[in-house]
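Retro notes, item 3 of 5
We never archived the inputs for the zinc ion complex last cycle. Fixing that now. Sequence and ligand:
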Amino acid sequence: MNIKENVVPCCYELSYDLMANAPKIILRIHESIIKYCAILKSEPIVKEFMNDFGFQTFNINFNSKHLGFDGALENNGTSKDFAELSVLLPLVKKNTDENCHWCNGTGEDQCDDSIECMSCNGSCKEHVYDYDLAYKISASLTVLFDLLNSLTLQSTSFFPQLLTVQTMTIKNAHGGSLNGQFSYILVQWLQCNDHKIIAICEAVKNAYEYMYGSKYQYPGDNFRLRVDKTGWFIMDCPGGRCGIYPTQNTMFKLSQNSGYDFTSHNVDNPMQQLSILAGLAALHDQVRATYYAIK
Ligand SMILES: [Zn+2]
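Structure as it came back at the time:
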């Protein structure tokens, strides 16, 4: 699907719901496309994920309550011509019963007892990162995006496809990488609405901190978002310069009334990937509300 120069009927879209105790990314697939998703059941990529990650099941029946690998996606049914799948963000950083080895269970910073220990965030407990559910969610989205982006048939939606995204799911460095396209409509919005990006940054922070289990208090500009008058968009979350940015050849296209490609850097795990996806979903919400409010 090329949406950079062409207006393509909406095949799928993203939304973000930052309800405090159950934030979720919502993937909405146009109902004219649903029947093509059944092919995933026999796709080699699904079998590979099940072998590589030990997933038990894969369900793509839209009459079921849960879809994807081991039911990682919740099916909310069809609304306003779109089937709606909820991605309930998982808790990834979990406390164990052992005392935090960094602060010896005091919960305080070793150098300054007026601030919390940055390892346990004052919980006094040791922690583990449990990515099991995050991998199931990420892999489920990866196979769906892979199919939706490759469809040659167009949907019957009256809305345009505003952005596309393709994730990957690998247990390794850069294993949560993602890329995609911004349509010209979306880039136009970025050019005129740089003052509205705070809501997008808040979505990334909200998603990351929910999965992290607490406020992310490490010093530095960890949730960085920048957009300029050309529509150049950069979005970061915690990690080593982890985030998305326009591809190198984009700067030559920004003056040509077109959208552009974006790619990622150092997105190593599904917690970072889902946080960036939350930001893209919040961006989609803003653009959709500006030009194509759902009636
Ligand atoms: Zn501690």
